[in-house]
Write a structure and sequence with these properties.
This protein has 13 helices and 19 strands. It is α+β, with helices and mostly antiparallel strands. It has two domains: 240 residues, 3-Layer(bba) Sandwich (FAD/NAD(P)-binding domain); 151 residues, Helicase, Ruva Protein, domain 3. The strands form five sheets. It has a six-stranded antiparallel β-barrel. The mean pLDDT is 92.
């Protein structure tokens, strides 16, 4: 054990991993976590299953990091997704790879990821204390320690800020790290939600609220630049305020300059059917007895919760007999099935975002060490840095990689 002491502020994904590798290197290491337990955000990630990484190479992670991806080159090559997988499996937490190379614990329990990290922290000899850091101490351009809310001072020669962003504040991510960084003279890039639901001009009815549309394709258009900026296939959740779900959250990362009605979200409810085949199916459905009504046919095409909204959008009476529906009306039905448009007006609040875009400027952090270029002994790891990724396990991998590099592997 060396005489050097490392303090880590934050006991989330980045803080725990930093604590493990710092203690394993022989440094006296303390993690300060204000919550009653560590890993609060990990518990709810991946819908409680924890998408712990992506089974890919470093370049793929960078390609899935729209904000300052190249900054992660050294961190990812120092601790890759493959090393993350090996770390958990070697420490008694078997993993599995699913669609999109997303990696989850075999148990489908996020608690297994947190428990593994916690065991490794204790085994490495790292101390965890439940306290709140009030301020950091800097003297002559060198980090010296922290001041706790109680007034107690703890000295250190190395401080790693791993406090997370400002998303999901109930998990403890309340933006404290940005305040500490400003104290050290760092620039904080504007904060905005990323991987977040979207509010739309058009509102769904109560029946559609919470409805999950599976196996739909989406297209997002930037109306200002007249360009398609995102396409995807998967799940979309309908909400009273607009849209949510995995595909929508991923799309939100591409909406860099939010302006009301700048972006149009188009949903193809029947991506497996071309318009011609869809028309053939409609004609077949319409060719029943004369008593078959429009609403009856929709029940075979759409989930129940969406029918009322679809009828309103089509402008056709639900009681109209199918044999009376005109060719033009049928054409309108097909167009609506293939392209249900929603006009985006705003992001949902930052508190609802999976990650925070923005944070400590990467220009002021050494990408080869994660050390501040302004204060000696000050390091950053995880979401507090101005780096954010798409969904798929990339954000947690980024937290692990920057943490291990900051710890000094």
């Amino acid at each position: 054990m060396t005489s050097e002491k490392t303090i880590i502020i934050g006991g989330g994904a980045a803080g725990l991993m930093a604590g493990i590798f710092s203690a394993k290197s022989g440094r006296q290491t303390i993690i300060i976590e204000k919550n009653s337990r560590v890993g609060r955000k990990l518990y709810i990630s991946g819908k409680g299953r924890c998408n712990v990484t992506n089974n890919c190479d470093a370049n793929t992670v960078i390609a899935n990091t729209p904000t300052n991806g190249r900054f992660l080159f050294s961190a990812l090559n120092n601790f890759s997704p493959g090393e993350t997988i090996a770390f958990f499996e070697e420490n008694g937490c078997p993993l599995k790879t699913e669609r999109g190379n997303r990696v989850f614990p075999v148990s489908d329990k996020a608690s297994d990821i947190v428990d593994t990290l916690f065991r490794c922290v204790k085994k490495a000899g790292c101390t965890i204390i439940q306290e709140t850091v009030k301020d950091i101490i800097i003297e002559n351009g060198q980090i010296c320690g922290v001041i706790l809310q109680t007034g107690m001072k703890l000295e250190c020669t190395k401080l790693i800020i791993a406090t997370g962003g400002s998303s999901y504040p109930l998990t403890g991510s309340t933006g404290d790290g940005y305040r500490f960084a400003r104290t050290a003279g760092h620039t904080i890039m504007p904060l905005r939600p990323s991987l977040v639901p979207l509010e739309t001009k058009e509102h769904f009815g109560y029946d559609a609220d919470g409805l999950l549309l599976k196996n739909v394709s989406v297209k997002v258009t930037d109306n200002k630049n007249k360009k398609i900026i995102y396409t995807d296939f998967g799940e979309v959740e309908l909400k009273r305020y607009g849209l949510s779900g995995a595909v929508v959250r991923s799309a939100s990362a591409h909406l860099k300059e939010m302006e009301p009605e700048r972006y149009t979200f188009e949903i193809d409810l029947k991506p497996a059917l071309e318009p011609e085949k869809l028309d053939t199916r409609l004609l077949r459905e319409f060719s029943g007895t004369e008593s078959v009504k429009y609403i009856d046919v929709l029940s075979t095409l759409l989930p129940k919760g969406l029918i009322e909204d679809f009828i309103k959008l089509s402008g056709i009476s639900p009681q109209k007999r199918c044999c009376e529906i005109t060719r033009e009306e049928r054409k309108g039905i097909i167009q609506l099935l293939k392209c249900m448009k929603r006009t985006v007006t705003a992001f949902r609040p930052l508190e609802e975002a999976i990650v925070t875009s923005g944070g400590v400027s990467v220009k002021e952090i050494d990408p080869k060490t994660m050390q501040s270029k302004l204060v000696n002994g000050l390091y950053f790891a995880g979401e507090v840095i101005d780096v954010d990724c798409y969904t798929g396990g990339f954000n947690i991998q980024t937290a692990f990689s920057t943490a291990v590099l900051a710890a000094g592997k």
